[in-house]
Amino acid sequence: MSTHAKRERLLLADLLEAAGPGAPTLCDGWTTRDLAAHLVVRERRADAAGGIMLAALKSRLDRVQAEFAAKPYEELIQLIRTGPPRMSPYALKQLDEAANTVEFYVHAEDVRRAQPDWTPRELDAVFANALWSRVEKAARVLGRKAPVGVVLRRPDGQTAVARRGTPVVTVTGEPGELVLFAFGRQEAAQVEMEGDKDAIERLRDAKLGIAM
């Protein structure tokens, strides 16, 4: 596993372990146990994980995920921490970095920011740039369901268009916060929005991002 994905994996496992199996998350309706089961199924059960993206496989995904959620919580945490089996596509370093860096970062924040005493995490510049690169490349996909035009902007002025259209809302924040916003965690993301007041409210309530 490569640097960012490996670090975020271990951090996420630690957060899940510390929170315990019944803690809330930012994932609608999911406890930490549900999130842990999702992460394990995603890497270890390709036959069911397709249901994350394909509606036709959703019932199978729900069934398999429920089976994993019934396992001892400590076992789920260990499976996350040790990573995918050798035959999993996620065992490839390049795919692990590409697919899991943002996945694990967002879900780590799902755990952290659902707790009442959470504090902002300061990201190093290299990791922040890595997150920006990913959200910049995926901006059009992440913002395709936005009801208004959306521009993502870093404090240094770099921008990415998430959706063309009018009125336009400009969302400014650090890369990690923009990732959270673009992946549908608008209320939890520490960003500033500029634009028409009604457009801002519509964007705040929109279903952004993709299934994770």
Question: How would you explain this protein's 3D organization?
Answer:
By secondary structure, the chain is of the alpha+beta class. The protein has 9 helices and 4 strands. The protein has helices at residues 3-19, 32-44, 46-49, 58-69, 73-82, 93-112, 125-142, 175-182, 197-204; strands at residues 149-153, 159-163, 168-172, 192-194. A 4-stranded mixed β-sheet has the order 2-1-3-4. β1 and β2 form a beta hairpin. The protein is globular and about 50 Å long. The mean pLDDT is 91.
List its salient traits:
four-stranded mixed β-sheet, MDMPI_metal-binding, single chain, 212 residues, 52% helix, TIGR03085 family metal-binding protein, alpha+beta
In short:
This protein has 212 residues and is of the alpha+beta class. The protein is globular, with a radius of gyration of 17 Å.
- CA-atom Rg in angstroms: 17 Å
Q: Give the overall shape, derived from the CA principal axes.
A: globular
Distance between the termini: 19 Å
Number of strands: 4
Uncertain regions: pLDDT < 50 for 5+ in a row?
none
Rounded mean pLDDT is: 91
How large is the count of helical segments?
Answer: 9
The biggest beta sheet, please? 4 strands, mixed
Protein name: TIGR03085 family metal-binding protein
Pfam family, one: MDMPI_N
InterPro entries: CHP03085, DinB/YfiT-like, Maleyloyr_isom, MDMPI_metal-binding
Domain Mycothiol-dependent maleylpyruvate isomerase metal-binding: 12-126
